[in-house]
Structure formats: structure tokens, C-alpha cells
Design brief:
Number of strands: 6
Radius of gyration: 10 Å
Order of helices and strands: HEEEEEE
Structural class: alpha+beta
Distance between the termini: 14 Å
Number of helices: 1
Helix content: 10-25%
Number of domains: 1
CATH class: Mainly Beta
């Protein structure tokens, strides 16, 4: 199980969140940008809420129970 606020960096982390419907919170430069469910994982992007977020630009945090 993932801890609330745990950073997601690996493909396996994102894929676990797809399979378990665990929400992910997205930050850009320390500011909350979005929260939602992972729809797709690619080498450079993560698709959440129909938006593609660059993995090297944003921070993704696990939010189980949100």
C-alpha cells in the first residue's frame, strides 16, 4: 500500500495506481496543479484527467483515501 504523500517516480508506481484506482496529486514548482486518476503511463508523460503531464517537470504524489 502507498502512503499518503508518497512520491511516484517509477512506471510500477503509476501502474499500481491505475489498477487500484488510487488518486494522484500533481504539483508544479511546489504548487498544487491537479488531482485525479492515472489513465496512461508513457516514458515521458503520465495522462491524468485527459491531460498529459511531463514526468520530469511535475511531481506526483499518492493520495490513497482522498
Amino acid at each position: 500500500m502507498y502512503q499518503n504523500g508518497q512520491p511516484l517516480t517509477e512506471d510500477a508506481h503509476f501502474n499500481d495506481h491505475i489498477g487500484r484506482d488510487i488518486p494522484v496529486q500533481i504539483y508544479l514548482q511546489g504548487t498544487h496543479n491537479d488531482i485525479g486518476f492515472v489513465q496512461e503511463v508513457m516514458l515521458d508523460y503520465v495522462k491524468i484527467n485527459e491531460v498529459f503531464y511531463r514526468r520530469d517537470q511535475f511531481i506526483f504524489l499518492s493520495r490513497p483515501g482522498y
